[in-house]
Amino acid sequence: MSATATIIRPRLSFWQIWNMSFGFMGIQFGFALQNANTSRIFETLGSDPKNLALYWLAAPITGLIVQPIIGYYSDRTWHAKWGRRRPFFAVGALLASIALCLMPNSPTLWMAVGVLWIMDASINVSMEPFRAFVGDMLPPSQRTTGFAMQSFFIGIGAIIASFLPWIFTNLFNISNVAEEGIIPDSVKYSFYLGAFMLFITVMWTVFSTKEYPPEPGTHEKLRNREQKKIDNEDHYAARFSRIGILLLALATIIGIVVYWANIEKEVYVLCIGLGVFGFVHLLSTLYIKQGRSYLGIVNIVKDFNSMPRTMVQLAYVQFFSWFALFAMWIYTTSAVTSHIFKSTDPTAEAYNEGASLVGNLFGTYNGIAAFAALLLPVLAKYTSRRITHMLALFCGGGGLLSFYFISDPFWLWFSMIGVGIAWASILSIPYAMLSGSLPAEKMGYYMGVFNFFIVIPQIVAGTLLGFMLTHFFSGETILILVAGGISMFIAGFLNLLVDDSDEVAIKEQS
Question: Of 123, 170, 261, 293, which one's alpha carbon is 20 to 30 angstroms from that of 408?
């Protein structure tokens, strides 16, 4: 039986699911503009391609910090008018819209990196509660549809946003090139329109959807839990201590190797991440020994180390899936402009033609994802969610691998079909499988923690891809996309090992 089987939710109509998911279209306006144009902005402001992965680390590190915190507090929020998740939708949308307006006006590289940090944090404030929203509002039999509807809007928002620079250039005759160090007007206007759409669509969901009040006793249960010491204190103190020491030792060893071997400095970020995670475990050990195991940080660490089995299994799938995606987002512009358009000069017409094509390609895979999202629940019904996700990941892996063999840009459109199918599934099927294994009162927190397995591979990619590019791939960024394709195939095979605990409930409600 699933963790949420005791909570009975009525089936919602198509338009109710539409309204509760509509805000995701605006959120994806922000992410699509970020994914398709950030590397272009960084290179225009003087970034070396080898440092792109390092600068991009602002985004995943922000998500790693923000999403679990937002999930934790949204679980504990309730307002008679604004509900539980919707206050976070609104605040995040406002801040993200401001950041989108600032991004293309950054005068220096470091300001652009800082704005990326703010923008990603703000988008995450809105996005994380949307994932828990489906688990809150829908019965098990409709969750695949709910997450697929989010994927549909993600695809629609992304295809429009990704094509915006091309639309402004070709339909409104707005310049797609500019002087050295200046962001083209086509990119600036795209970000302005994206800010407007993000705010409007999120607020549509805020005002059109009413949330269910918490189950009787839910908040009291959470408060009592936070005021009560954890069970088996000695067991958890010893466990947290072992994990903390291991992580700190691993961080130290990697740091020493990086220093003596003179490896790229971005690998130090991985050391810092491991060290911080180890320190938090040791801090929790100290609090337990002081008799303060009721503290929130101790409960957060305990819940992290007590994740449902399905969540642990999905973590491996997510790691290899998102490692591939992050490689694609960072290096597709550089790979296409250098491998196919034979240009590495951001002021050259060939480079900007290739960079604009990448934006259109990103829009295409998101458009494919929008329509694939409508078909995935049907395929899952006749096979299973595990088989459906595996096949989709294989499509994505094949799409990324094909970049290496293409010389005519026309064929890249077909590559993105596979990527789009994988993207639709990555944004829906894992969350549908996960939601059935989570306790209702911790839905937001665990959805936030699940983001770790999106962010951690991005951090690993951000710290290692530059090293791989220099030492293994001889500066050929196209080989990064090949590595991404292989990674997605690995994710597909690992997905077969996932225990989808919600399948019984779905069959009973069908």
Answer: 170
